[in-house]
Amino acid sequence: MEAPIVKKVVVTGGGTAGWVTAAALAQQFPELLDITLVESEEIGTVGVGEATFPSIQSFHRLLNLDEQEFMRESKATFKLAISFENWGGLGDRYLHAFGTIGRSTWMGDFQHFWLAAQEGGFGGDLGDYCFERQAALAGKFATSEAVKINYAYHFDAGLYAAYLRRLSEPKGVKRIEGKIKSVRQHPETGFVEALVLESGETVTGDLFVDCSGFRGLLIEQTLKAGYEDYSPWLRTDRALAVQTPSGKEIPPYTRAIARQAGWQWRIPLQHRVGNGMVFCSQYQSDEEARATLLANLEGEALFEPRLLKFKAGRRLKAWDKNVVSMGLASGFIEPLESTSIHLIQIGVTRLMQLFPFSGITPALINRYNEQSRIEYERIRDFIILHYKLTERDDTAFWRDCRDMPIPDSLAQRIELFKESAMAYQATDEMFRVESWMQVMLGQRLKPRGYHHMGRMLGPERLRTALDTLKGSIAGAVAKMPTHREFLNSYCASPGT
């Protein structure tokens, strides 16, 4: 039997996942595909994915988005870092910043120079040598040809999806409003042939992209692709989300504040602040989590907190037969480190790279699924790291996280850093050396040894080099406008 040729793509579900998928396919494959998106305004979207990772800039270039227009339309702000509070211990704070730290060499990374300085009694804080971290702490931001800075965004996910829809429909994406009543499959192959809507309309397609959220209407309810459960390591299983009015200042970073049985997020947008509590129902009731969240808001809640239930993990087959799952339909790790939208965009990018123009084949499906598995597992390990590396023993939740067994892949990374201060970024891995290093050091993992490349400079040359770098960064930050000042100028409507 010949492999089915793909000319008509049906996206099941809207929201961020659906419209990111439709927008990318329409932009990259004009005239090649017939793209239909089916969604119902009666079915709400999760809408908590308001923080992103710097890789989104590359994806936006694929979509040919105008950054200023995108930011105006989605009420976006800039994000330089995540502030982690109370994670290593109560009262602790460190920033996972997106920038380069110091200057590395072919022999090794900057932390080895810094550790040599620390041993000599100088060198200050590691974050002194990261431009993005210092700008974040100062509440500053600027970007131009003259100012190179690594950043991501905070934005309103609902407005973002609406913006992508407005861009996609003129490019040929057909949107159909309606709820799906049933799914029709080929009697022999099991491939999905059509969606039957409650209105009686039938939507046929060659390839279906399942963006139906946690329920996985096609990938799980229809095809039974299976799910790998990450909850033995990632124990949070619920989130409460609420909004508060925008404050006077707009910090250019996300806050992740560890609480009794999970953590609280605070995400500043132009028009409001997104807040939420991620927690484990085994250790805390919904009512207790709600009370903790409301007691720690900055400003009045604009509505009653919304409860979301989830199970951390991934779909065993992200692509099964002629269905590719995206977003929550393909898996969910948790909001920490803002990976959800990245996983959508890398999934769409992978689909475009492996697109079955010559037909859907097992080889393409296997390649897609293997890459998806590796991506999820590497992100999973990085998120587990935050829970494992804690010295908190004030609640049962944190004690259990500290003492839990972890995947061998993560245990080996931790041991390598503990022994020699060495970290690495695997091929195609989302998180860089600086990311691993900042979390490990920020959560009190002090290396026993380090590479002695710094000693080769001698203490005076090393001190001079570090002081020069620190002073250069401080000088550059001092000249920057505040984040709010830059936003007011950058996001102003044309002609104003």
What does this structure look like?
With 496 residues, the protein is of the alpha+beta class. It has 3 domains: 8-77 and 154-230 and 312-378, FAD/NAD(P)-binding domain, CATH 3.50.50; 99-148 and 407-478, no CATH class; 238-309, Alpha-Beta Plaits (2-Layer Sandwich). Helices cover 34% and strands 20% of the residues. It has helices at 15-28, 56-63, 67-74, 111-119, 131-138, 157-168, 286-295, 340-353, 362-388, 396-403, 408-420, 433-442, 459-478, 483-490; strands at 8-12, 34-39, 77-79, 81-85, 93-97, 152-154, 174-177, 180-185, 192-197, 202-204, 207-210, 227-229, 238-245, 253-259, 262-268, 272-279, 306-309, 313-315, 319-320, 323-325, 331-332. The strands form 5 sheets. Strands 5-4-14-15-16-13-17 form a 7-stranded mixed beta sheet. A 6-stranded mixed beta sheet has the order 7-2-1-11-20-19. The protein has a 3-stranded antiparallel beta sheet with strand order 8-9-10, with no helix packed on it. Strand 14 (253-259) and strand 15 (262-268) form a beta hairpin. Helix 1 (15-28) packs parallel to helix 6 (157-168), helix 1 (15-28) packs parallel to helix 8 and helix 8 runs antiparallel to helix 9. The longest helix has 27 residues, at 362-388. The radius of gyration is 23 Å and the shape is globular.
